[in-house]
Specification:
Oligomer: heterodimer
Bound molecules: adenosine-5'-triphosphate, iron/sulfur cluster, magnesium ion
Structural class of chain B: alpha+beta
Strand order of the largest sheet of chain B: 1-2-3-5-4
CATH class of chain B: Alpha Beta
Radius of gyration of chain B: 15 Å
CATH architecture of chain B: 2-Layer Sandwich
Order of helices and strands of chain A: EHEEHEEHEHEHHEHEHHHEHEHHHH
Strand content of chain A: 5-15%
Number of helices of chain B: 5
Largest interface: A-B, 22 and 25 residues
Shape of chain A: elongated
Number of helices of chain A: 15
Number of strands of chain A: 11
Radius of gyration of chain A: 25 Å
Largest sheet of chain A: 4 strands, parallel
Largest sheet of chain B: 5 strands, antiparallel
Distance between the termini of chain B: 24 Å
Structural class of chain A: alpha/beta
Order of helices and strands of chain B: EHHEEHHHEE
Number of strands of chain B: 5
Strand order of the largest sheet of chain A: 6-5-8-9
Number of domains of chain B: 1
Shape of chain B: globular
C-alpha cells in the first residue's frame, strides 16, 4: 500500500470548520481551509486526539469491515487485550474469546500471549551491551511515528523487537498452518483493535518490510455482535493461553510490570509522551533502561476505537483480572519466530522549510518577522493551530496574513479611516 | 532580509522556575526545523539549557541572544547577577554554591559549566563581581 500514510480521515459534510481539532493535534497536522478541516498527510500519526475532541463526530478512522474476513477460507482473530475490558457486565476472558470464535473465526490467538513472548525477548535485549539506552518500546505505533517525525535522534533508541500484534500474527499463521495443513495464503489474520494506528501499521509497517496482519477490525464495530453471543458462551468453551503478564499490557504500566524491572518510566497520553521524549533527547533522563510509552491516556484501554471510556475500562479490567484463572507467565520462546524488526526506521521530514540550509534560514528569518507582527493570541481562527503555524503556512505560500482576523480588522479600520479622510477632503 | 542569519532574543525569567528552559527549547525547535544535524542540535540544546538554568538559579534571570548561521550557532547568555569570583574553580566538575533547596530540586551538582565546555566548540565567560556574567557558547556546524 504505497502512498497510504494514515487512517484518520474527515467526513467533510459533518465538519463545521471549528478549531477544536487543530488545537489538540500534537503534530500540527490539521488546518481549517475553506471552512473544512484538512489533514496534512505526512504529519498525521493516527493518535486519535482529533477523533476524541471533535464535537460533530466528523473525524473517523479507516478500519476493515468485519465482513472482509469472509474473503479468506480460514479466518484467525487476534484480540488486543483491551477487548477484555469492554463489557460492563463482567465476562471472563474465556467467555469473551469463545464468543469471538462464534462470530465466524476458525482460530483465536491472544495478542496478550504474544506480548509474553515479546517480554521474554525484551528482557534479553535489555541485557545487550550494544544497544542505546533508554530503550523505547516499539509496541505503540503512534509513538514510533512521533519519534520518526519529531525526534529522529531517538530512532536508535526504539526497541528492535517486534510489536505483540506482529508477533501474534506470525505465530498464529504458522501454528494454524502446521495444525491444519492450510496454505498460508488461504489464511486471513485479523487484529481486533483499539486504535486506528494499528490499521496503518498493518498497511504500512514501520520496522518491518511486510506485515502479517491482513485486516484490522475496530473493537467498536464488532461490539454489538459480540454482546449478543456472549450470553451463550461459557468460560469452558475456550482455553485461554495468556497470563496476566500479557493481558496487563493493555493498561499503562503493564508492559513494564511484565519486564520485572524497576528501572523504567511508563508514560501515557500523547502530549506526556512528547514531553518525555524531549527530555530524553536533552539528556535529562539518565539511568533509566526502558521507556514504555503509550499514545493513549491510560494506555490501550483508552484507545479511540474502544467501546468503554478509559476509566470504566480500567475498573472492568481490574475485575476481569481478579476473576482470571490462568497461571502465572510461562517462560515463552518460539524457535520458528524471529522477534527482530527486519527494516530500518527512517526519519520523515514534514516540517523543514527548505532543503537548502541557506534558503531555510532566510525563510525562517522571514517567518520570525511575520510571527512578531501577528497578535500572538494563538486563537486558531485563521485555521492554523497558532500564530507561528500561520506564519509557517504563509512562508510556504499556503496562507496569507489576511487570514488572521485581528489583522484583517486592523486593515479594515485603516481603510475606513482613509476613506473617511478622502471623503473629508472632497468636501 | 536575505543575509543567511537568524537572530533570536529571549528574556530569561527567574520568577517561575517551571518555565526555565524556554529559551533553549525554543531555539532547539528552530534548529530542528531548519534541518540541522541532530547531534548539533543536541549540543546547542544541552549547553544552552545549562547556561539558562545558571542564570535563573545563580543570577535571578537575564537574557539570551542567539545567532544561527549555516556555519555556526552562537549563544550568549547575560545576567546582572553577582558574578563569579573564581572562574577556574567554578569550571571544576562538582563545584557548586547552590543551596540545599536548589539541590533538592535536582540541581547543584556542579556539572553545568563542565557540560557546557564539553558540548561546545568554544566557550567564553566574562564576569564582574556585582555587575553580572556573560557566557558565550559557540557550536560549529562542520
Ligand atoms: N551566571 C552565574 N552567576 C553567578 N554564579 C554562577 C553563574 N553560573 C555559575 N555560577 C557559579 O558557578 C558554580 C558552578 O556552576 P555549574 O553550572 O557548574 O554548577 P551548578 O549550577 O552549581 O550545578 P548544576 O549546573 O550541576 O545544576 C555555581 O554553583 C555558581 O556558584
Ligand atoms: S496506546 Fe495502544 S490503543 Fe493507543 S495508539 Fe498506542 S497502541 Fe493504539
Ligand atoms: Mg548550573
Amino acid at each position: 500500500m504505497k502512498g497510504y500514510s494514515h487512517s484518520i480521515r474527515l467526513e467533510a459534510d459533518k465538519c463545521r470548520g471549528c478549531t477544536n481539532c487543530i488545537k489538540t493535534c500534537p503534530t500540527e497536522a490539521i488546518r481549517v481551509r475553506g471552512g473544512k478541516a484538512k489533514i496534512i498527510d505526512n504529519r498525521c500519526i493516527d493518535c486519535g486526539e482529533c477523533i476524541r475532541v471533535c464535537p460533530h463526530q466528523a473525524k473517523k478512522a479507516n478500519t476493515d469491515e468485519f465482513e472482509t474476513i469472509f474473503n479468506y477460507k480460514y479466518k484467525i482473530a487476534l484480540p488486543a487485550p483491551s477487548l477484555y475490558a469492554q463489557f460492563s457486565k463482567i465476562y471472563t476472558r474465556g467467555q469473551i474469546l469463545a464468543a469471538l470464535k462464534l462470530l465466524g473465526f476458525d482460530y483465536v490467538y491472544e495478542v496478550a500471549r504474544a506480548a509474553e513472548l515479546i517480554t521474554a525477548e525484551t528482557k534479553e535485549y535489555l541485557k545487550r551491551k550494544d544497544i542505546i539506552r533508554p530503550v523505547i518500546s516499539s509496541a505503540c505505533p503512534v509513538v514510533v511515528r512521533l519519534i520518526r517525525l519529531k525526534y529522529p535522534s531517538l530512532i536508535p533508541n526504539i526497541s528492535q523487537i517486534e510489536s505483540p500484534m506482529e508477533a501474534a500474527a506470525e505465530i498464529a499463521r504458522n501454528e494454524f498452518a502446521a495444525k491444519t495443513g492450510a496454505r498460508p495464503e488461504e489464511i486471513g489474520i485479523f487484529f481486533i483493535s483499539p486504535c486506528a494506528a494499528k490499521h496503518t501499521a498493518a498497511k504500512m509497517p514501520i520496522g518491518n518490510l511486510k506485515s502479517n496482519v491482513d485486516g484490522v477490525i475496530a473493537i467498536k464495530s464488532i461490539y454489538v455482535k459480540l454482546l449478543k453471543l456472549l450470553s451463550d458462551s461459557e468460560e469452558a468453551d475456550f482455553k485461554v493461553m495468556a497470563s496476566k503478564y500479557g493481558v496487563r499490557w493493555a493498561n499503562s504500566g503493564g508492559e513494564s510490570l511484565a519486564l520485572e524491572t524497576d528501572n523504567f518510566i511508563a508514560v501515557d497520553g500523547i502530549h506526556n509522551v512528547a514531553k518525555i521524549l524531549e527530555e530524553i533527547e536533552d539528556d535529562k533522563i539518565n539511568d533509566v533502561d526502558f521507556i514504555e510509552a503509550l499514545a493513549c491516556n491510560g494506555g490501550c484501554l483508552g484507545g479511540p476505537l474502544c467501546m468503554e471510556n478509559v476509566y470504566s475500562a480500567k475498573a472492568i479490567f481490574k475485575k476481569v483480572l481478579e476473576k482470571d484463572i490462568s497461571q502465572s507467565a510461562l517462560p515463552y520462546t518460539d524457535e520458528r519466530f524471529n522477534p527482530m524488526h527486519d527494516a530500518e526506521i527512517e526519519y520523515v521530514d514534514a516540517y523543514s522549510l527548505d532543503k537548502d540550509m541557506y534558503a531555510a534560514i532566510n525563510k525562517m528569518a522571514e517567518m520570525n518577522r511575520i510571527v512578531a507582527e501577528l497578535p500572538g493570541l494563538d486563537c486558531g481562527a485563521c485555521g492554523a493551530p497558532n500564530c507561528r503555524a500561520l506564519a509557517e503556512d504563509i512562508i510556504r505560500g499556503e496562507a496569507s496574513e489576511s487570514d488572521c482576523i485581528i489583522k484583517l480588522k486592523e486593515e479594515y479600520k485603516k481603510l475606513k479611516k482613509k476613506i473617511g479622510a478622502e471623503k473629508g477632503n472632497e468636501k | 532580509m536575505s543575509d543567511n542569519i537568524i537572530r533570536l532574543h529571549y528574556d530569561i525569567d527567574a520568577d517561575d522556575f517551571s518555565s526555565a528552559g524556554l529559551a533553549s527549547s525554543g531555539t532547539k525547535r528552530m534548529l530542528n526545523q531548519l534541518g540541522f544535524n541532530p547531534a548539533i542540535v543536541k549540543k546547542v540544546a544541552i549547553s544552552m539549557y545549562e547556561a539558562e538554568i545558571n542564570a535563573v538559579i545563580h543570577a535571578d534571570g537575564g537574557c539570551a541572544d542567539v545567532e544561527i548561521t549555516p556555519e555556526k550557532i552562537v549563544v550568549v547568555i547575560s545576567d546582572k547577577g553577582p558574578g563569579i569570583p573564581d572562574i577556574e574553580q567554578a569550571m571544576q566538575a562538582g563545584w557548586s554554591t547552590a543551596t540545599n533547596e536548589i539541590r533538592e530540586q535536582g540541581f547543584g551538582a556542579g556539572m553545568g559549566l563542565p557540560n557546557m565546555k564539553r558540548y561546545t566548540d568554544d566557550m567564553k565567560i566574562e564576569t564582574e563581581l556585582g555587575v553580572g556574567t556573560k557566557v558565550t557558547l559557540i557550536i560549529n556546524v562542520n
